[in-house]
Task: structure prediction
Amino acid sequence: MLDISPEEIAETVTMVTQQNLDIRTVTLGVSLNDCAASDAAGIADRVYERLMTVAEKLIPTCEGIERDFGIPIVNKRISVTPIAEIATCAGPDLTPIALAMDRAAREIGVDFIGGFSALVQKGIGRGDQLVIDSLPSALALTERVCGSVNVASTRAGINMDAVMLMADTIKATAEATADRSGIGCAKLVVFCNMVEDNPFMAGAVHGSGEADVVVNVGISGPGVVNAVVRSLSEDADLTAVAEAIKATSFKITRAGELVAREAARRLGVTMGIVDLSLAPTPADGDSVAEIIEAIGVKRCGGPGTTTALALLNDAVKKGGAMGTSSIGGLSGAFIPVSEDMGMVRAVECGALTIEKLEAMMSVCSVGLDMIAIPGDTPAETIAAVISDACAIGVINSKTTAARLIPVPGKSVGDYVSFGGLLGHAPIMAVNAWAGTRLVRRGGRVPAPLGSLRN
Amino acid sequence: MKTKAILSVLGEDRVGIVAGVSGALAEAGVNIEDIRQTILSGVFSMTMLVTVDEDAESFEAVQARLATVAEKIGMQITLQREDVFRFMHRV
Result:
């Protein structure tokens, strides 16, 4: 007997066909711990072999799941052990490892591979330094490799030397990819409180606490949530809005849970986590900014935005928490500018600024994401923006990050286009009164009192 | 291998929908377990619980067969494994 009503079936079908319900990413986390060697070429060979062996069936498996369940899986990706952990004895240039990752990604058919990464919140080790030094060339010479560096944590505080080093690295990466509007920086995230099981790019890594190979799934669904909020009556109160989002989030998360279980079963690997992040795309209507506006803010970025985003983020988690027992990753709404057409519109009309995005970051996931800024922004200013993002993360025990793109040759009012999922965006103004001396002091902002929990 | 699936047909009501769909299913060796038909917000909606015998014809081949029917009768037809609906609509 059919115990699902025609209305419920029609709802699911409509979610997929008209409201952009999809699984944003199935990400295979792969440990590279057995790939360490004393030279970059040796590591590169081992990494390539390892990836080709482990991820061979990723794409056909995901395509089979898409077919059987009728839910599109937009991206198939790979995350690996932070390269700094396996490259301590190599050097000086780790670009060959990135090239091997890129080649494997292309041959396997994944659009991005994350993990050209280092964790330096307390200090910069030799492997970390090699990764950071290699980032500009690694990101310029590859198409699919993503890098990330963790410069702060609630337990360690903010490593300001690393923040400044990363600001210089961002500038160098922009210059190294100047002919492509600084796209290298779109593949580079600076984190505070980086997580070990994030399936989303550019910040995905396979952490040291993970099994050898795991499947992590990132849900999507801003379009579905947007449609649900817009279907409510004008006078529905905020409790009703939260309830509607919660119920929808449950359904989206269940789709993610089903795909994660099935992918793990078919690939014969461990199921990792389901990341409950609402991840926008440049597709029409698939926008977090538009949800904020549907809740009742005239334009995203205007007063009330932080409240609406807090309500949205919390309701998504509450619904999602019922949908899976394996919540992980970043699990919060994403607010990238260039990847969300509603955000772009809000910047264009002056409603949304970097300062407001900073406030929004305090109540959701990640934060200063895919923001194009003038190419001549001083490194110290970039460092100060990153350190503010870190401060919010450190004090509030949450993940925050910055993915800033100083676009060479462009200034405020110009546009930049990265194509595909990375979208396009206007160049945003950066406050000129930066804490240059603050970041040049270097050293470490001590861990806050709130970190002493034992 | 027998796979339970939900077949959903959405679109404007017209003559020959049930005949077109059930004919294609019979040719593919797919058994219809249950069938319901209703009008949802003015749109014709037919849902079927079916069992696909993948030894006779693969899930993918049945989907391809239904895509041809969908084009012919001008309706949206989807065939999805039943689990997805149970997961999304039942705690």
